[in-house]
């Protein structure tokens, strides 16, 4: 029987995903085969496993922290919102259906047995399981059909550590209120509390910690300081809170259109980490001024987001940017929007719509979703801004419902030679005749250091700057460094030995 611990939070965005990743790295460093698990994830950030299954990005980067390949069993249920009240339901890596919130709530009990089996299957192959909850376990209106917080802890028969975010204020009320709203058998599972995102002198908290421990009977296992670790965020709420607003001026300014249903904004983490790039998420036309590159990202509601671009003036601003010799890059849904026309009888319910018209391509949506991990290289003899990238190695993944057809004289961007670890041949993307507009279905394209550096140096030369003189930035090594920084900080500020003790004592009781 594997050891297990579950990290739940007093609210969303308290740092659960990051702390789970840190625990995965710590347990792996200690020599334990470790795996993350989140039964249900609601996010527009998703990725693809080596066998072509779709799962949440948070569990993918947690698997990376544990030093193992992502496995769809780590996230059996993925909900991808398509509107304010509907979501695409992905079960075990494949699209099952679309449901509104009430229908899905009533459907959840049918998933319990499958989730239990999946969890037990994964746990049987690992020494330690690190589970993550969603939102708060004190959502009393959802308790009777919960499959992701205390309901999941009961299925896994594991103890819980509660995480509270002090940066947003009211941390002690959040801890006390959350525990007070739990049922007695749920309170019994809560074996510790972690206070997260603290700034200042921790001595100021000691009296409050003593009181909250006395009030709840639950020990505080540590106080984590605010860490500027550069790892993936699960939710776009971090963008709404201005994660990139404080970045100082850099040689290159790159703007990403912040679409209402933007998906996979993790595509741009590697870009933001480049030493000469200032990355901005923009939602107003005037914010495109002086950008060296404008990126149209992926979308879970392509036509809805295209209509939004038109209504708020961003489409015209993008066209003006291109008219003034600016460079544009579209990924997945963004690639589709840059084309001539989109026909959609699947995703948005809006039918069809003219595209922005910067690429000679047409997209038709299909009911079958493409979910693949691919590798290949950029085409030779690309024009314009992207010429320096010709022949660069690429790898990443595709997640899309549409199929896009290039015009007869439109050149593709890349050739994929591997798909889900098997030999493959497919041409991807499109590039405009003027060499300033590129579209691709490849998520994670900027993780490929050679391609990214050649593109950035091309943008630098257009500004009259010299090419970057340092080494090509290795994003994978950068992530490894960040995981280790996180793990070191957690070992310093959290009683990790106490967490081991909690897991072992609970295992003995279960036996």
From TrEMBL:
Active site (catalytic residues): 332 (nucleophile), 443
Keywords: Cobalamin biosynthesis, Glutamine amidotransferase, Ligase
GO process terms (BP): cobalamin biosynthetic process
CobQ/CobB/MinD/ParA nucleotide binding domain location: 5-227
Pfam families: CbiA, GATase_3
Pathway: Cofactor biosynthesis; adenosylcobalamin biosynthesis
Keyword Ligase assigned: yes
Domain CobB/CobQ-like glutamine amidotransferase, chain residue ranges per copy: 253-450
GO molecular function: ABC-type vitamin B12 transporter activity; ligase activity
Gene3D superfamilies (UniProt xref): 3.40.50.880, P-loop containing nucleotide triphosphate hydrolases (3.40.50.300)
The family this protein is said to belong to: Belongs to the CobB/CobQ family. CobQ subfamily.
Function: Catalyzes amidations at positions B, D, E, and G on adenosylcobyrinic A,C-diamide. NH(2) groups are provided by glutamine, and one molecule of ATP is hydrogenolyzed for each amidation.
Name of the protein this chain belongs to: Cobyric acid synthase
Organism: Buttiauxella agrestis ATCC 33320
């Amino acid at each position: 029987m594997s050891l297990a611990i579950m990290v739940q939070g007093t609210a969303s965005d308290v740092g659960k995903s990051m702390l789970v990743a840190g625990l995965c790295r710590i347990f792996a460093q200690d020599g334990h085969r470790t795996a993350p698990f989140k039964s249900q994830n609601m996010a527009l950030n998703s990725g693809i496993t080596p066998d072509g299954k779709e799962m949440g990005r948070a569990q993918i980067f947690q698997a990376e922290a544990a030093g193992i390949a992502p496995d769809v069993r780590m996230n059996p249920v993925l909900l991808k919102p398509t509107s304010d009240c509907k979501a695409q339901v992905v079960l075990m890596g494949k699209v099952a259906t679309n449901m509104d919130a009430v229908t899905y709530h009533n459907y959840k009990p049918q998933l319990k047995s499958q989730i239990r089996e999946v969890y037990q299957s994964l746990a049987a192959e690992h020494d330690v399981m690190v589970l993550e909850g969603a939102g708060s376990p004190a959502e009393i209106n959802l308790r009777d059909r919960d499959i992701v917080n205390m309901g999941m802890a009961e299925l896994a028969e594991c103890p819980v550590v509660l995480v509270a975010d002090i940066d947003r204020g009211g941390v002690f009320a959040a801890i006390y209120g959350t525990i007070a709203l739990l049922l007695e058998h749920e309170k019994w599972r809560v074996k510790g509390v972690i206070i997260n995102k603290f700034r200042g002198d921790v001595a100021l908290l000691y009296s409050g910690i003593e009181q909250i421990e006395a009030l709840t009977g639950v020990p505080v296992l540590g106080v984590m300081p605010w860490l500027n670790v550069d790892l993936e965020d699960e939710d776009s709420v971090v963008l709404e809170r201005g994660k990139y607003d404080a970045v100082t001026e850099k040689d290159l300014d790159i703007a990403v259109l912040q679409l209402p249903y933007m998906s996979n904004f993790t595509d741009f983490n590697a870009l933001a980490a480049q030493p000469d790039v200032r990355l901005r998420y923009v939602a107003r036309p005037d914010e495109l001024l002086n950008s060296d590159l404008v990126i149209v990202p992926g979308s879970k509601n392509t036509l809805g987001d295209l209509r939004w671009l038109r209504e708020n003036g961003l489409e015209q601003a993008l066209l003006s940017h291109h008219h003034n010799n600016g460079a544009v890059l579209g990924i997945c849904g963004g690639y589709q929007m840059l084309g001539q026309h989109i026909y959609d009888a699947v995703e948005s319910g809006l039918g069809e719509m003219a595209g922005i018209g910067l690429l000679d391509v047409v997209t038709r949506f299909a009911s079958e979703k493409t979910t693949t991990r691919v590798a290949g290289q950029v085409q030779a003899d690309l024009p314009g801004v992207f010429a320096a990238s010709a022949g660069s190695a690429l790898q990443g993944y595709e997640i899309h419902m549409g199929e896009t057809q290039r015009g007869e004289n439109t050149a593709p961007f890349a050739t994929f030679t591997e798909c889900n670890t098997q030999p493959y041949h497919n041409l991807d993307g499109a590039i405009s005749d003027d060499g300033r507009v590129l579209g691709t279905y490849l998520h994670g394209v900027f993780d490929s250091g050679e391609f990214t550096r050649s593109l950035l140096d091309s943008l630098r030369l257009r500004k009259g700057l010299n090419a970057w003189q340092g080494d090509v930035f290795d994003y994978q090594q950068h992530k490894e460094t960040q995981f280790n920084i996180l793990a070191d900080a957690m070992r310093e500020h959290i009683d990790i030995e106490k967490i081991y003790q909690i897991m072992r004592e609970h295992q003995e009781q279960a036996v």
